[in-house]
Structures
1.
Amino acid sequence: MSLFRDATRWLVRAIALFAILAVIGLVSVFVLSEAYLRDVAPPPAFSAVIPTDSTSIAYGRHLTRTRGCFGCHGQQLEGQVFDYWPWVKRAVAPNLAAFAKAHEPATLEAAIRHGIGHDGRALWSMPSYNFVHLPDSAIAAMIAFLKSAEVEEHELAEPAFGLRTRWWMARRTEMHMQDWAERVPGMVVGSDEQDNIRRGERLAMTTCNECHGLDLRGSTAEMDISPPDLAIVAAYPWDDFVKLMRTGIPIGGRDLGLMKVVAQDRFAHFTEQEVEDLYAFLRTLPNRPVASDVFWRPEAE
Ligand code: HEC
Ligand code: HEC
């Protein structure tokens, strides 16, 4: 009888101890993950004047379209929930038109170019690393457009991080968006090279590097798809490149999946001049060295 009572008592103690350890573990993961999200360097001051003329606003709309803001934030900028991103429980791209009206230009710029949210925490799913090389004038035009955009009210769920993401954050095995943004390499085109090549590099480094590697030379990191080294464009005749940009259909007609989606949503809106500039720059890539010691291409030879 007393043996049974002792055994029960020990079992209860063991369960209580386990529960306490589990709670301590969960609280630690939460606290450490929040500490990482708050471990951000303050961004440099942003004081560009936000234009109000219609030409700048139209240019801002063009940038917003070609840089994919509509694709993620909704075609009316009304916001969108990404329940299916398995590494986050629920990423929520906010209502961008409403957000732009509610916040200062510097707050928007910190999110767009530096991966820092309005609450001072680093962003996680917003691809700010893709916008690092947008110049002040482009950011200002984009903010002008966003502030002028009509707000479409739309119910959105609250964002939430899953335990797996929190675990990565706590151990800092995955980077938050400011850390990503800081690792974007500089431009490689020299000042002695042609203007269209320079413009093409800036375009590529603020659109294609979202997927094709931070340096455009291919990415194998964390994607089950492997967007190739864009030196492949040297093998594209001009007409085929135009078709790829306008429709997402490559030479041979294969279905490129995500590439097709972004070509139709974003690149189809490039001006003729922009497609020419991109083509001019990307065709110089085979003559430029490729870094191999970079984290976004761990299997590179
Ligand atoms: C791949 C999808 C994606 C694209 C492309 C994208 N965003 Fe986002 N954005 C998000 C998500 C998701 C969030 C919510 C924060 C997070 O999860 O990192 C967000 C958050 C934001 C925020 C709010 C940050 C805060 O303070 O909470 C702003 C501002 C923003 N995005 C602007 C833009 C602009 C401007 C563009 C285009 C240049 C753009 N985004 C392109 C997904 C995207
Ligand atoms: C949102 C992600 C994404 C962006 C942004 C993106 N791509 Fe891609 N791209 C892909 C993926 C994924 C593939 C590979 C698809 C496959 O091989 O199945 C690809 C493939 C390609 C190919 C190879 C086509 C072939 O013949 O096999 C070219 C060329 C290309 N992209 C050009 C570009 C250019 C130029 C840009 C910028 C203007 C760009 N991509 C931006 C995802 C992207």
2.
Amino acid sequence: MLDAGHGGHDSGAVGPTGLMEKELVLDVTRRVARLVEERLGIKVLVTRDSDVFVALRDRTSFANKERADLFVSIHANAHRQAGTDGVETYFLSSEATDSTARQVAALENGVVQLEKPAGRGGNGHKVDIVRTILWDLAQSEFQIESERLAGIVNDSMTQSLRIGNRGVKQAGFYVLGGAAMPAILIEIGFVTNPREERRLKDGRYRDEIARAVFAGIAEYKRHWDQRTRAAGDGSPVTRTR
Ligand SMILES: [Zn+2]
């Protein structure tokens, strides 16, 4: 699942000459989607393919409902200091996660095995405890995979884009919370930096970004395929469609 940040009345960050994050990230996301679909033969879904507003919780709910194997959210950064530049990649930190939101999303999504129960007590108490443990285990597994994916994608971007490396970070991004799969958020550059804004307007540079994100996803998939082949299990990430 590829997720272009913002959209509609939410323009996201805006650059000094008017480049809007929502427009930039939609275009980059489309380029990434094309590459992943054509070259990896993986089915790609997007949370939006036009200039529409999509609520944050609906983005991961859609990914859960579709049983997506990975969730990659694409954003551009902003900073009060115009000189701030570079790429950074986030994965969800469980400490920072809003567990209520995660729980609500999981319930709404009907991801039965990964559902965190809403209440305590009553006849369902034991089942609820087991479910809670399973949900927490799944979340920590997703977090390990999310961190791995974030590292690979961040390396791929900083190595090929001649851009500052702000590193892999963890934070409680609402858009990543509730995802029942490894999930990352990529900040492809600062639209508020005049030099970066100029580059980010260029179609060829957008292609370079898309290729770098694609290369990261491809490498992650190679690692994953190797590990699951070695372990001999049929993990959902290797599911073919
Ligand atoms: Zn954003």
